[in-house]
Specification:
The structure is a single chain. With about 425 residues, the protein is α/β, with parallel strands linked by helices. The protein has a domain of about 200 residues: 3-Layer(aba) Sandwich (Rossmann fold). It contains 17 helices and 15 strands. The strands form 4 sheets. Strands 6-7-15-12-13-14 form a 6-stranded mixed β-sheet, with helices on both faces. The N and C termini lie far apart (about 75 Å).
Length: about 425
């Protein structure tokens, strides 16, 4: 049985896991609050007995695991496992269903940028083609183990399509709240997975607040990012996969696209756990990259204050006027010795083109922000040539085709004979 507690990031109070889970607390019972167009207060984190885990887990064995199969190391997940045939199985999930949830095991890739080696974590080939599967898988499994039948989430698109697809694989009903500006490809993906979709005539922040209110009234399990601590827990898995894939030789610097702030918080938590286990000597420097039209983290780190400003960017997946995990994201940046920067929509689209044409990876704009951020700091000589740099590519470009169509004009249609004359006949 995995032992863990819930700890409030705000007030620091610790809570028994049974209390939090049996009563379906999402935020801290003492100081937690969710106000419209504001970051969350009292976000809960899951903590394990790392001193005891040092005795149970082996760094050498861990490095031999297959990336993308979280169930191979049950000690680091807040899920119920049972011993069967000398191996651990996830309670309530058959082996067949579990294999359906495996992530791409070869996502850690090496390329070159201006004669410098650069690494990419390519999440575009996950089950529903985005990083959000990491959070949806752990959250949905927890829901199954808690006996829930319906799960809700607010999303700009990726978290919604992820939850819809994972729920379809597990036989659970999903309810997805989306803003009016959701890209059609993401909307269609959500609907194709059989989810019940609710388009809100407003922003993602409006959809987030509506989802909280409705799911509370209807008693739906809520997957909203940061609000449900399992979302942070799921996203930490990338740190483990990076650690395994690079054989323990972790990056010096990681560029992370930032919207709500949960990915960067999860990545930080994963490396913090590896540090607590004594398997790494430092946490990578985390660079949070935001679009200029959605830069709440950058402004918060500069001023120490949050001000709600409606978002406006082509990078919809990192578009959040009120990042719900703002405070934890800011902490991840500061403690890791990193920073937060902005890039323009033009820089994002330029980076998207480069990734596609030079690396053969079709990324959505939010993902390309990581390369745009790297280029910006490299041009300012803020990247050491000897540093090992990793970019997170968090979503597939086919999830939002409108930006692609702007720089890929439809070719002319010529007849068979016309093409022959044009291509062969002189």
């Amino acid at each position: 049985m995995v032992e863990y507690i819930y700890k409030c990031f705000g007030c620091g109070k610790e809570f028994n896991s049974k209390l939090i889970e049996s009563e379906f607390h999402y935020l801290c019972p003492e100081c937690g609050s969710s106000e419209k167009n504001q970051p969350l207060n009292g976000v809960l984190e899951i903590e394990y007995d790392y001193n005891n885990l040092k005795k149970e887990l082996s760094r050498k064995q861990f490095l031999n695991y297959t990336p993308g199969k979280f169930w191979l190391f049950p000690e680091l997940w807040p899920l119920n496992f049972a011993r069967e045939n000398h191996s651990e199985i996830v309670t309530g999930i058959s082996d067949n269903k579990l294999e359906r949830l495996a992530l791409n095991s070869s996502s850690y890739l090496e390329f070159q940028f201006e004669n410098c080696p650069i690494f990419i974590l390519d999440e575009t080939r996950n089950p529903t083609l985005s990083y959000k599967d990491r959070a949806s898988i752990i959250t949905a499994i927890k829901g199954v183990q808690l006996g829930v039948k319906e799960i809700a989430a607010a999303s700009t698109g990726n978290a919604g399509s992820s939850l819809a697809g994972i729920c379809a694989r597990l036989g659970i009903t999903s309810h997805i709240f989306v803003p009016i500006g959701i890209p059609d490809a993401k909307r269609v993906q959500i609907q194709s997975f059989g989810a019940k979709i609710y388009k809100v005539d407003g922003s993602y922040d409006n959809a987030f607040d509506l989802c909280l209110e409705v799911s509370n009234e209807r008693k739906w399990y809520n997957r909203n990012t940061a609000f449900n601590p399992l979302t942070i827990e799921g996203k930490k898995s990338a740190a483990f996969d990076i650690f395994i894939s690079c054989r323990g030789e972790i990056p010096d610097t990681i560029f992370v696209p930032v919207g709500d702030g949960v990915i960067i918080s999860g990545i930080y938590k994963g490396f913090r756990e590896l540090l607590a286990l004594g398997w790494i000597e430092r946490i990578p420097r985390l660079i949070g990259v935001q679009a200029q039209g959605s830069d709440a983290l950058v402004r918060y780190l500069e001023t120490g204050k949050f001000e709600f400003i409606p978002d406006d960017t082509v990078a919809d997946s990192i578009s959040a006027g009120a990042p719900r995990n703002l405070y934890m994201a800011a902490d991840a940046v500061k403690v890791s010795g990193g920073k937060a920067i902005t890039v323009s929509d033009e820089e994002i689209i330029s980076a998207q083109k480069f990734i596609a044409k030079n690396y053969g990876i079709l990324s959505e704009p939010s993902s390309a922000a990581s390369l745009a951020g790297y280029i910006k700091l490299k041009n300012k000589n803020e990247i050491n040539q000897k540093d090992k740099v990793l970019l997170l590519i968090t979503g597939n470009g086919l999830k939002d085709t409108a930006p692609l169509e702007k720089w890929n004009q439809s070719p002319p249609a010529l007849s068979y004979d016309e093409w022959l004359q044009k291509l062969i006949t002189k």
